[in-house]
Amino acid sequence: TVTVKNGATLDCQGNVLSGSATFTTNSGGGLSTTNSAGFTSSGASGSIQTTGTRTYNAATNYTFNSGATNTGNAILAGAKDITINNSSGVTLTSACSATGTITLSSGTLDLGSNNLTVTNSATAAISAGSSTNYIKTSSTGKLIRAISSTGLPLTYAFPIGTTVYSPASFTFTSLNANSNLTVKVTGATYGSMGAQ
User: Fold this and answer.
1) Is the pTM of the predicted complex or chain greater than 0.90?
2) Distance (Å, rounded) from C-alpha 156 to C-alpha 134?
3) Which residues contact 69 (CB under 8 A, 6 or more apart)?
4) Confidence class of residue 196 from pLDDT cuts 50, 70 and 90?
5) Can you name the residues that pair with 126 across neighbouring β-strands?
6) CA–CA distance, 17 with 23 (Å, rounded to integer)
7) Strand order in the sheet with 23-25
8) For residues 25 and 60, is the Cβ–Cβ distance under 8 A?
């Protein structure tokens, strides 16, 4: 059994972990890759290709570096922190709920047809957005952020766009309860936005 423990990070770079072992990440364990297929739950693709059962904890931290153009479906189980560090961009290949932070160090995160839900209601839960580093909603996928009803007023930034960076910012001065805000850009301008 290969286990990535809390506080440890397995930096695969462009290498592949194979063999018959089972693979597990514990809560707080980290995975980093430059593999174009990211991390997968089965099959011979991605950085982890063991034939034993692969179990990715929902509180795993993921970093996608240069060359990692897809996240893979491992994050379908959930994630804690996600870091995008590929100037060519990364595509989210399965819906994901992140409990920690999204750091846009370099490049875009294209949601494709998948929703990205950030359940951390801190205003800084998404950081480093810019005209070159942002979340693309070029298909049907939406960015969903948790909004806190305490400590108001609070301003939440949505570093989003399609082929063009079209960021949005919302300031909340009064909420009866914790809420979610769903945002998607249509075309090159602000698109459909709705509170849940």
Assistant:
1) yes
2) 15
3) 36, 86, 88, 89, 90, 91
4) very low
5) 102
6) 9
7) 2-4, 23-25, 54-56
8) yes
